[in-house]
Amino acid sequence: MKITNRFNLPEGFVKAISSEKHNEENCLSATTLLQGVKQIILTDRYWEKLEDDVSDRIWAIWGQAIHSLLEGEGDYEFAEQEMRYKVGGITVTGRIDNYDMQSGVISDYKTASVNKVRFNDFHDWYLQGMIYAWLLKKNGFETGQCRFITLLKDHSKTEALRDRRYPPKPIFIYEFPVTLTGIMKIDSFIKNRIGEYERCRKLPDNEIPPCSPQERWEKKPKFAVMKQGRKTAVRLLDDKAEADAMLSKLADTHYVEIRHGESTKCRHYCLCNRFCHFYNSVLNTAEYAQAA
To answer: How large is the average pLDDT for residues 116-120?
Structure first.
């Protein structure tokens, strides 16, 4: 991977970003398993051609700094410990920020936007935490709880005073119990994901199934009731039938415009999108570009 520096930031920023592959050969990390299989394969296949700019990794650098500050251990804890377990021909890996051997609590340190808390958007963290619990169990350690200790990088004290639903402090803890049912479900998830990865890893690029809408962070389309000569929508609706019903009651100067839901990750956060057949043939069209 090539690391670019379009804004001529100090060299220390560049050196803080690794250009090495995240995964060893035939290994998949806990966070990699959360990606779509197509993204995993294309990232590995085109690694030497990928580019990433320092300016797009600022928050990742901050996250690395936070981890460095918090990697001290208590008497019954271990920190930054990598766990491994082999499933078929693939080794699953996970570097656990902190594990308390007495209480069986896994702690992971995160930086995130306030919106992650406001929209209760923790599905990816739940899966990551359960993969860590699964890895620990496979290596002989019992767990009872996962905690994600989160520093909110865009927290506003003013908004916290004004809005009761807003996180009151710039730190938030997302936690959940580790259950036997949860371990069984994540075991199935891991095996299915690895099975799909092994099935697809030798396929040509355009035959690898696209990432799922959830993996692409796809937003649902909207239906705008428009009026000729007016730039903004009269009404923006989630349902086409509802938009059509409203249109039937309005003058002929009105019409319905479809505003396609953007796949946010594909467009803004996937480094291998220019090598993705699905992105270039479907999402990167003029129609979608205009909607985005």
So the answer is: 93
On whether residue 215 sits in a domain, the answer given is: no
**pLDDT of 170-184, one tens digit each?**
999 999 999 999 999
Give tens-digit pLDDT for 66-80. Answer: 888 887 778 889 999
What is the structure's pLDDT at 283? 66
Answer yes or no: are the C-beta atoms of 211 and 36 closer than 8 Å.
yes
Instruction: Tell me, yes or no, whether 244 lies in a domain.
Output: yes
Domain boundary among 207, 233, 252: 207
Task: State the average pLDDT for the chain.
Answer: 92
What is the domain range of residue 59?
A: 2-207
Task: Please report whether residue 260 resides in a domain.
Answer: yes
